[in-house]
Amino acid sequence: MGHPTPPAWYVISLRPQGGHDALRRAARRHGAGLLALSPWRIRRCDDTATRDALRAALACPIVVFTSPAAVAAAQTLQPLEAHPGQTWLAVGAGTAAALRRAGIDRVSFPARMDSEGLLALPDLSDIRGVGLGFVTAPDGRNLLVPTLEARGADVHRAEVYRREPTPLGTRALDTFADLQAPAFLLLSSGGALQHVLDQFPASLASRLKTVPVVAASQRLVDTAHAAGFIHVILADGPRPAQLMKAACTIRSTRIR
What we know:
Elements: E1 9-13, H1 21-29, E2 32-36, E3 40-44, H2 48-58, E4 62-65, H3 68-77, E5 87-90, H4 93-101, H5 115-119, E6 131-136, H6 144-150, E7 154-159, E8 161-165, H7 169-178, E9 183-187, H8 190-199, H9 202-208, E10 213-215, H10 218-226, E11 232-234, H11 240-254
Parallel strand pairs: 1-2, 1-9, 4-5, 4-6, 6-7, 9-10, 10-11
Antiparallel strand pairs: 3-8
């Protein structure tokens, strides 16, 4: 049997270890391969303090989840159940879908799936004195909590998982160094980008910055430009299909 034909182009994923499958499937549908550069792994928290914080957060009139990983981690600590009169919010469609799978039927999320979009939801416009549960990671969604507190919310933060930095390893670096086909960097986390750049040798970092970037939000467009990337395009959102649609748009304009 012969060797399989290599993909004609690649996308680079900075998702956590074990979190590339959805992007890999979306890339495959467009004939692209995926190069995984994972700067961290997800570690769920399981201690008395975390359980107490989660219990308090889930008892609030408004409950906000910042990621599917937060939903998965919270589920391991206690069942998720919506109480009468509660409002459940998610940063994006993926988090909302995870909450629905966990048994929360009514979940709202913004059309613009980022921190700014969430803050624009009507449910968060008049929250002075309102208890708000915020389920996240230690460094998750740094913009949100100060803004919610500035609006007068009584924020109960539950940090149910953490991101543990991991070395990229020589295999990942060598794979990128040897990559001959066109590649596009799919960017949904500024922190992940910085962790990756910190581990790249200078020569490879310079090459990486010539790779076109597909950013999931305007904030990440600005982050990529500030990091020295030249070609950056804004996707319609952070979902794999949205990121791949934008990558295909860039690719089609470059091969005409």
